[in-house]
Amino acid sequence: RQDLLARPRNAAHIAKDVADMRARIAAAKPGDHWLDVKTGPGRIQDIELLAQTGALLAGSPTHDIASGLGALGLADTQLLADTHHMLWCLHLARRLVLPDIARSDEIGPGAATFLAAQAGQTSLADTQKALEHQHPRVAAVISKILDDLQKGTQP
Question: What secondary structure letter does DSSP report for 72?
């Protein structure tokens, strides 16, 4: 890993490869269910891929999301880091109270309140609405960053 990180890097080439990888992941795992916060555009895996891109471009061996995103010098670092944290909290809570996402119609009131709280919401309906707004927003931010890197402009 250290040898790879020490090599010279072409940001435009790496950004293109990452954009291609995002497209393949989105096609294979589009995140069809609103409670699937791990895979799909603008979700956990997408943010982590961008953070790994930042770490690679910076030659940084760090594994944490904030450092990887921070290495890109983004104006949207906090938005992406906060979204990642919230989605991880919600993902872990959902796995705890609802191991089978296909049975989301069986969420009881206590579990619904618990899940909503993880997303900073007061109801499951508000959580769904917030996520349906946030995922495309985050995906668009990531796409713009990768586009800028491919063009050689600073994100």
Answer: T
8 A C-beta contact, residue 153 and residue 73: no
Identify whether the C-beta of residue 71 lies closer than 8 Å to the C-beta of residue 27. Answer: no
Angle between helices 124-151 and 44-58 (to 10 degrees): 30
What is the CB neighbour count within 10 angstroms for residue 43?
Answer: 25
What pLDDT is recorded for position 61? 81
Q: Burial-class residue 133 by CB neighbours within 10 Å (0-12, 13-18, 19+).
A: exposed
Using CA atoms, how far apart are residues 130 and 132, in angstroms rounded to an integer? 5
- 8-state DSSP, 123: S
pLDDT tens, residue by residue, 24-44: 998 888 777 888 999 999 999
